[in-house]
Amino acid sequence: MGLLVEEYKENGTKVLDNLAQKRAGEKSKMRHNLTEKKKAIVTNYTATRSSISKLVEQLKQRPLTRVDKEWCSKQNLIREQMDQGGGDDE
To answer: Does 90 reside within a domain?
Structure first.
């Protein structure tokens, strides 16, 4: 009977050791995957930040020129009308 109990103990220990090794392997794989995801996120963030910075600089260099031109021409037209007496209302 003692031999049977000893055999069960050994088998149980082997099963637990195998499970512990399997769990350690899974944890290692999860850590690796998380590290790779973090790297991908940082890369995407950096690329996005760079793109946004370039866009901001481009907008600073040429601020809505078409809108500015239209605004100036409308202002000039209004000034001309005011100089002429405000139009033909009378």
So the answer is: no
